Target: Integrase zinc-binding domain-containing protein
Amino acid sequence: MDQKDLNSRQWRWIESSKDYDFTIDYHPGKANVVADALSRKGEKNITNLVDLRAMNVDLEVDGVTGLLARLNIRPLLHDKISEKQKEYPELAKIIQDIEEVKESPFEMVDGMLKMNKRACVPNVDNLRKEILDEAHSSAYAMHPGATKMYHTIKPYFWWRGKKK
Model:
């Protein structure tokens, strides 16, 4: 952004979108011939919207205009965890054995190993430290202590010895 001073709404957008890899393209008024169509309320509902908590968004607009947009957003941290799980021996073995074990707390969801719906975080490349730093330093976290930070990340992430 070229603007010198951002307002609070702009700061919130920056904070909430910093974990995503995306590009914003500016189209000058004359070049943006579809601006009017995009700003009008559609006649039909959006056909495909996946829950953001699942860390994927598929957006399709149909009708007379056909497919206007297909947007896939996936947080960088999600991809990083999924990739590193396969490299970490303990988790790689669980991933390999997951189909054979009945009644396991582990499951594969969108290519990520989860235990009781929490992402299994391997102990590689400071990944755990990155999660803890984000939980502690985020503008909305207000620098919580260890116990509050633990309770903040507990519903989303799992690793052995996390409470230490």
Remarks:
- DSSP finds six helices and four strands in the chain.
